[in-house]
Design goal:
Elements lengths: L17 H4 L4 E7 L18 H8 L2 E7 L5 H10 L20 E4 L2 E4 L14 H7 L3 E7 L18 E5 L12 E6 L8 E4 L20 H15 L6 E6 L13 H9 L20 H26 L5 E7 L11 H4 L14 H4 E7 L8 E3 L3 E2 L3 H8 L5 H5 L15 H4 L11 E5 L4 E6 L2 E6 L2 E6 L15 H14 L15
Parallel strand pairs: 1-9, 1-10, 2-12, 2-13, 5-6, 5-9
Antiparallel strand pairs: 2-11, 3-4, 6-7, 7-8, 10-11, 14-15, 15-16, 16-17
Helix pairs in contact: 5-7, 6-7
């Protein structure tokens, strides 16, 4: 446990209370990578088979207005972990910490001696710490992106019992990497360590030799997640975060029946040849690869649900599936071909709807009403209060605010009532995003959406123009003024992530 968060940690229930603890719902949060709003069949996708996710939606609740925390990986995960939007959270972009470090040898390859992204604020509580405090055992498998190796914010320091995956999201651009990271209490780890992939490192990381590698990270991470579920005995509630990397580029995977199905289905395909500057290897049969990644991801979700049923956990487990942001255009991906975003404008790195509106499915037999399509507006920073409410925390802000911080922000609203089919759901007055890389700020208030680019605000009425084609800022200066005021009220300065705020009139 992070020593800076001891103020938040209350004594856990003793043995006489274990039975009560077990009545709390188990929670599994599955966040895939770069899946567009329209990339599942239950959202309208025509080319990619997703039967397990479609069944999950029919047996649970499918949301149509759910939003990522950011249009890229690290800050979107930060929003989920911290319960803060990107005007308040520490991590607001993909700041890297692997550059300009000494290189080390791994097999026939040179590798960075340190990898990872900007750390979460160690003085602000994150979700695994809260869930651990509430009596949960915690596991995370996949992308971390909340701190570099050896930093103040790595899984071993932030309330996670078992971790396996990529501490560094840059490393996750390769599905056959040189190593993965692990922190396992059960295996006696004292900190996050590297696990070299011995079969992979015998072959080069670039060029034709790369395709001789056999250790496919997505499968390895998924199998470890399943093993973790299998290890649960039902005496303690569990909280799992499965941050699968599919279908993020690179577009490569095992030559198995899933990929072969799409090679036979798409008779015309395209190859993407690697430019010299690219982090990716060449992608052959790019359409086949992307579609197969979607179906492979779907198979993983199906196996998670099956494992829960096998263990008898399905009646007391909430499973949420979503994506960290909109679809990418990298490594050979073809959003136009697949219609990734259907009626939405923009892709990853844009605060337009296509960059931040994401598929979002909740499943929990006996907990979540079946077959419901819901238009409640929610954002990733709502997950912290929602999980707290489900775990029985009455006032999570009062309980987990750090009294040593001048201001400790909590931006979310619980949507537990919506999830469980109850009346009285509180709605947001607005949703907020900012993103340094493309210098954008966005506010949604009801059906009004402002997207500010380099300080210039553009206004859209989503009730009539969900594709954000018609900028009506000049016709509604009063609305623009209100949204600009909201943006300024939500923005706090960051020394690491700068944006141009829209001008106050």
């Amino acid at each position: 446990m992070n020593k800076n968060l001891l103020w938040a940690m209350m004594p856990l229930m003793t043995a006489c209370g274990n039975q009560q603890e077990a009545q709390k719902p188990n929670i599994i949060y599955i966040m895939c990578d770069d899946l567009g709003y329209n990339d599942l069949a239950c959202y309208g996708q025509q080319y990619i088979n997703t039967p397990n996710l479609d069944r999950m939606a029919s047996e649970g609740m499918r949301f149509t207005q759910a939003y990522a925390g950011s249009p890229v990986s690290a800050p979107s995960r930060a929003s989920f972990m911290t319960g803060q939007h990107t005007g308040h959270t520490e991590v607001r972009g993909n700041k890297e910490y692997w550059k300009d470090v000494p290189m080390i040898q791994m097999g026939v390859n040179e590798e960075f001696s340190r990898v990872g992204q900007h750390p979460y604020d160690p003085e602000h509580v994150i979700l695994p710490e809260i869930m651990k405090d509430q009596g949960y055992t915690t596991g995370m498998f996949g992308k971390w992106a909340g701190g570099y190796e050896g930093s103040v914010s790595t899984p071993d320091k932030r309330g996670i019992d078992e971790y396996y995956g990529y501490v560094c999201q840059y490393q996750a651009h390769l599905y056959y990497p040189n190593f993965l990271n692990r922190y396992s209490k059960s295996k006696g780890d004292k900190e996050v360590i590297r696990i070299p992939l011995e079969e992979n490192i015998q072959h080069p990381q670039r060029g034709e030799g790369y395709f001789k590698r056999t250790q496919y990270s997505a499968d390895m991470i998924h199998r470890t997640a399943l093993e973790w579920i299998d290890s649960q005995d039902g005496n303690q509630p569990f909280f799992g975060v499965f941050t699968y990397t599919l279908p993020h580029a690179e577009l490569v995977q095992p030559e198995d029946s899933i990929l072969q199905y799409y090679k036979e289905k798409f008779t015309e395909d395209k190859n993407w040849m690697q430019p010299d500057w690219s982090r990716y290897n060449t992608a052959l049969h790019a359409h086949d690869q992307f579609a197969a990644m979607g179906t492979r991801l779907d198979a993983y979700v199906g196996e998670v649900l099956a494992k829960l049923k096998e263990k008898g956990f399905d009646k007391n487990t909430l499973v949420i599936f979503t994506s960290d942001n909109g679809p990418h255009m990298e490594g050979g991906a073809d959003p136009d071909f697949f219609g990734h975003n259907a009626i939405l404008r923009g892709t990853k790195r844009q605060t337009h709807e296509g960059g931040v509106r994401v598929p979002f499915i909740a499943w929990g037999p006996g907990m979540v009403p079946a077959g419901v399509v819901n238009d409640h507006q929610l954002a990733f920073y709502d997950l912290m209060p929602t999980f707290c409410e489900l775990a029985g925390v009455e006032d999570y802000v009062a309980k987990y605010t750090n009294p040593n911080k001048e201001v400790d922000y909590f931006d979310g609203l619980s949507f537990a009532k919506t999830l469980t089919g109850k009346e009285g759901q509180q709605a947001h007055d607005f949703l907020y995003w900012e993103f340094e890389e493309t210098n954008q700020v966005a506010v949604r208030m009801g059906d009004w959406k402002m997207v500010s680019k380099a300080g210039k605000p553009h206004l859209y009425d989503l009730s009539k123009d969900v594709h954000e084609d018609h900028d009506i800022a000049e016709q509604h200066p009063d609305i623009v003024k209100k949204l600009v005021e909201i943006a300024h009220s939500q923005h706090t300065e960051s020394p690491y992530f700068k944006v141009t705020m829209p001008v106050m009139e």
